[in-house]
User: Fold this.
Amino acid sequence: MSIEVRAPTDGEWPMICHADGRAFGNAYTAEEIDQIRPMHDLSRFRVAFDDGEVVAVAGSYALDVTLPGGTTMPMGGVTWVSTAATHRRRGLMRQVVEAVHDDIDARGEPVASLGASEGGIYEHLDYGIATRQRVTSIDAQAARMRADHLASSAPVRYVDGDEVVPLVAEIWDRFRRLRSGEVDRSLQDHEFAFTMRLKERNGMSPAFYLAHPDGVAAYRIRAEWNNGRPRHAMELIEFSAVTPQAHSALWQTLLGVDLVGEITSRILPVDDPLPFLLENQRLVRTVELNDGVWVNVRDVKIAFGSRTYRTDDRLVVEVDGKRWAIEGGPDGAACRAVTSKADLVTSQAWFSSLLYGGIYPSSLVAGRRMTARNDDILRRADMFFTTSLAPHCQTHY
Assistant:
């Protein structure tokens, strides 16, 4: 029989979970299959079936992404992408992902975005790297806050139970608008995350929540007593500080948790100011720096016309043979198709990488992903497209 690509039915959900688990080295329990079902709109999924068997999957979430300048825009968060090992090298991943792209386009979402399980598989589907994911490690027993940043009575407290979800949701809705690349979270998302964090995971405790009037942090602990020389491991799994005061107060509290030796995280932006709050900046170590969110701009006119730019300028970018003029500045912009001479020439993938403002055109030129008409234009482009705060996304989707 020929392979059929279509939206799945509700009765096929367990098959999709089985295929996803097999692809990513996981096994969903019957309880988990039922538990995560409400989080997924199957009309946004496309599945390849071979004689009734699920052999490739892709889907998307309806998200709202922050752009430079603080405006937000609908986005399709592509997810659950996998192909069965028995059906590799047949173009099935491209088929299901492009079918999801068609669905995203039909819904009027100008951007598709994803987090890649591997770094070398999405450029050929017109995705470019737009953010970075930083893995950090902090020696909590050696780290000391600078005296001028210490608060004698930091307004931070532990919260739990029914108080957590509404508090986290309110803080998150303010926080996610501060950096381009971050996305919204529904109340259902917050409730699900809270429920999952009530469970131990990978030998670590359930989550503890710290709250400030303008920020929230959540962490897990793995006890390591070391025969009377405790160095517990803390994993920071959520950090959303709306103000510098909240950021400092939450870190003062985190660094003061008893018995902790190391604090690790995968959620701090590359330009997080924590090192400047410490007596020894070197104690905040970047263990890894990887690609974060990948972006595929589906509607160039809307996407690049909806963000702001650092300088007032007009640049023409040729993208796979089509030219776009972007004219804008700190107060807004417009983008339209033109036939005039191109200032920059690149592909859809690497043009998309410029949307959130974290990638310098000069880096793309040096990496042979873009060309510029001259050095002055490249200098202007670096100033025009980039943002003062690095784009960041700590939401997994």
Remarks:
- The mean pLDDT is 96.
- The first helix runs from residue 13 to 24.
